Amino acid sequence: MLPLDRLTDFSRLRRLTPYRPAFGWFRGECIDRVYIEQFLSRNAADIQGRCVEIGESQYMDRFGANRITRPDVLDVISRPGVTILADLTDAPAIPSNSYDCIICTQVLMCIYDVHAAVQTISRILAPGGVALITLAGISQIAPPSMMAEGGEFWRFTRSSAQRLFADVFGAENVSVESFGNVLAATAFLHGLVSAELTPEELAYNDPDYPLTITVRAVKSAVQQGSVHA
C-alpha cells in the first residue's frame, strides 16, 4: 500500500480530471468498501451452510467464520481459488437449490443480461437461502486494467434494484438500501480513500446520492419463475 497522501484542501478538487484515478486503489480502503463491508457485517448470520461467493472468497473468509460448511468461488475465468467455472447468466451445470447463501459484490454491473443473472441466483439458492448483493450507484467506470474481461454496462438506483430482484424473488422477500452522500460520492469519484473522510462524514446517508446499493433477497419455499432441477 502506498503512503497516504491525505487531501485536506478540497479546493484542489476543482479540476476536470480526477484527483486520483482508479478509486484510490492501493492507497487505502476504497470508500465504497466501507458500505459494502458494513452491509455484510450486519448480515453475517446469513453467511452460513453451503455458500458461494462470486469472484473470490474474501468475504466468506472474513464474515462466514466457522458457519460455512461448503465454500465455493464462482467465476467465468479459471484461476487459483475458483471452484466453479460458470457464467451467472447461464449455468445449467450448477444444480438448483444448491446454496444457503450467495455473496455477489460489485458484479452485476459487468453482466449485460442482469435479468438472467438474477434468475440464476434465485435458481441455485436453496429455499430459505439468502443472496447478499451490492451494486454501484454513483461511480466511475473501472479502467480496463482493473477489469478481468469485458466491461461495465450498468449503474443502479434503489428503485431499479428493488424491481430487478422483486420480479424474481417477490417484493416481500427483498430488502434494498442505499448508502452515501454528496461528499462521499465526490470523494469517491476523485479517488480519495476512507481515511480521508471522518467516520461521521461517511456515516451520513442521503438517499439522493446513492454511492452503493445493497440487496438482501430471500428465496421463498415456492419461487415464481424459478427453474428446478
Describe this structure in words.
This protein has 229 residues and is of the alpha/beta class. The protein has a domain at 36-178 and 210-218: Rossmann fold (3-Layer(aba) Sandwich), CATH 3.40.50.150. Helix content is 24%, strand content 21%. Strands 3-2-1-4-5-7-6 form a seven-stranded mixed beta sheet, sandwiched between helices. The chain is globular, with a radius of gyration of 18 Å.
Concise account of the structure shown:
It contains 6 helices and 7 strands.
Q: What is the top-level CATH class of one domain?
A: Alpha Beta
Q: Which overall shape is indicated by the principal axes computed on the Cα atoms?
A: globular
Strand ordering within the main sheet:
3-2-1-4-5-7-6
**Largest sheet geometry:** 7 strands, mixed
Q: What's the end-to-end separation, in Å?
A: 46 Å
Q: Can you count the helices?
A: 6
Could you spell the SSE succession in H and E letters? Answer: HEHEEEHEHEHHE
Mean pLDDT: 91
The CATH architecture of one domain can be named as 3-Layer(aba) Sandwich
Rg from Cα: 18 Å
CATH fold title of one domain: Rossmann fold
Strand content: 15-25%
